[in-house]
Hints:
The chain is mostly helical. About 65% of the residues lie in helices and about 0% in strands.
Amino acid sequence: MSRVAMDCLVFGLVLGTGSALTGCAGGNAASAPAATAPAAAPTSSTEDDESAADLGEHHRHHHHGGVTMFIAMSLDSLGVSPEQQATIEKIQGDLFEKMEPAHVAEQNVLNVLADGIAAGKIDAAKVDAAIDGVKQASMGVHEAAAESLNRLHAALTPEQRAALVDKVEAHWEVWKTANAQEEKPGDAPRPGHLDLLAKDLSLTPDQVEQIRATFADKMRSHPQKFDPAQVEAHIQEFGAAFKGSTFDAKTLKRGPLAHENLAVWGAKRMAHLYESVDPLLTPEQRTKLSALLREHGAAKSGIFDADKRER
Length: 311
């Protein structure tokens, strides 16, 4: 799946359309505006469900860029003119570059988890240290990306700025769904993280039941709870400012805390799930899960490829 189709999928999931990709425009960041571009061929419900699962898995394992990641990922299908293409691609590349320290820190978390699962015991102290690295790196993302966001605002038309805000809000909705606490199984269109993991690793019903219970206990007992209102407030703050005729990202006061909150909580939730899975795995399941986590860790920042079924 192209990243344009992925972005259309985000809207389909949030708006609840029957076929998430139907009617989405083809192309890339330099495509003509979606209203005038030819429509892509409809996809089947099964394809939509699989793509939705893939996008959810991406958002479960990649939190390092916070809201800035949502912005950068939303640029691919914005529908800019050929004259805007080079500028937008440069800004997008700059945004990913600014997120790279946090991306490296997140890779470390995934690799620490993979090492622990392969060895038969996750080292909680190493995981905590790795997540602290995510915290330190994510705190600087908003400030580092501010000038790039200012240039992005200047490069877009008012209509494009409003469309970008809508796309960011849609990514946030998908992220919240993908990172739910999962105290019970998901449904067929939107399976939970553990549901997909059970399929990938051929977990038994007893394994799944024990993992779900342990994971729920870990999430309930964690001293720091996730506060989505902090991220929501920043997204609303960003949206209102970005749609205006003037914009300065440095004036967005909620940005640093929102980025840290999203990135750190996402990493902790992910770690808690794999810590719950770890004691119950067979040697074969350990080998497979360790390899899957290393694949996630090796993924390039911001890349989502549904054709490869990222898990």
